[in-house]
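Q: What structure does this chain adopt?
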Amino acid sequence: MKFTPRIYIITLLMLGLGAVPLIADSIDEPFYTVLFSRMLILSIGAVSLNLILGFGGMVSFGHAVYLGIGSYVVGIGTFHAVEDGVEWLGNGFVHMAVAVAVSAIAGLIIGAISLRTHGVYFIMITLAFAQMFYFVAVGNENYGGDDGLSLYMRSDFAGLLDLSNDNSLYYLNFGFLLASLYLSHRLTNSRFGMAIRGTKSNEQRMKSIGFPVFRYRLLAFVIAGTICGLAGVLSANQTDFVNPSVMHWTHSGDLIIMTVLGGIGTLFGPV
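A:
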């Protein structure tokens, strides 16, 4: 692989992100660890959106729904773990598995409906789904309603990780960011990824040469949603709080802005 100035810059950026907790501790400013940890979580969400927006040309104003799903999985799970004594509902591995499953199902339903349309109609349908999930969360008084839900505890990873330590949580977020970047790289450079890029450039031509365009785009939509759902699990643990506003369409707009400003269709742009 040829080392270009861009690769050097990206390498330095990753090394710098990896050193943030060490630097923050050395200057006795733990606030920076928390700040950059939140940035990493948003970066994961933007990287997942880039799969469908940057490479597939699908402008979704409902992507933050998956952040909300992941967050509420943690919030509801820890609530019942403490209130009802169901300890396994506080397990972090359970949270991640449920967040992936629910996000995948939501992505499948939203994608199956919205991907039958194009252009502004696609945008409006994804926005409508975002607002539907938002108002469902607002109306659910059992879990805080509009006021949200404070976490009784952070996800428990059976002693393997202590998420009460902000440095441990930071490196968990950092690890997931690296994993999402690697997965994105592998997907976009595979036959599947090339097909998705082709649908962005000329969907009709891809159909005419025999590619199942709808299925490819739907699979990309589901994968992007599951990655963002995991980001929601991390977000809830980071903030110790879940709120319906995380699902609002304006939050999806923030992710779109991050992706566009960083460079649509680039791997590290959203970061």
